[in-house]
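Input record (one chain):
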Amino acid sequence: MDFQTQIPTAAVLGPALAVVALVAVVRYHRNVPGWRGGPLALRIITALYATAVASLTFFPLWIYGGDYRNQAEWIGQIQPIPLLMADISMAPNVIMFMPLGFLLPLLLPRLNRGRTVLTCALVSLGIEVIQLLQYIAFAHGRAVDVNDLIANTLGGLLGYAILRAAHRTAATRTVLDKVSPSPETVTWS
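The corresponding structure, as predicted from the sequence alone:
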């Protein structure tokens, strides 16, 4: 049977954001620490950022069957050699992960530079693995590229560096401390 269908972005990410909003409202009304004021705003911004990244990397999700299905083997979708095909097209991946490197230490103040960069790398690896699994299951044609992993990780490092630089001035440090759930535990190394 030949078919092609699309799972729209809003069909998945809309309900996910609704769940986040419901959790935020419940925790806000129960006075759960870290779910009021600046920390709540930080959590909402992070949820919107995660939704944007998911929208860019996974959606819309096309499902193909029969003659419409891509016949190329999944192994051909993997670009395992670093920087072989590196060019300016890596810049959007760097930019896409800069907010993650900035937001993670604010959300989880005990994350230092190494843990933040490692988390960014693992999130990027997770995205690449999911894209590969989507290709295997649905043959929608997304490529898996080690350069994306490198660029995303670099973006996380740059985001962390920007946060650290912003934290050095008194005015921005005051704002950042207001949005972090527990600023007294920040470890800047």
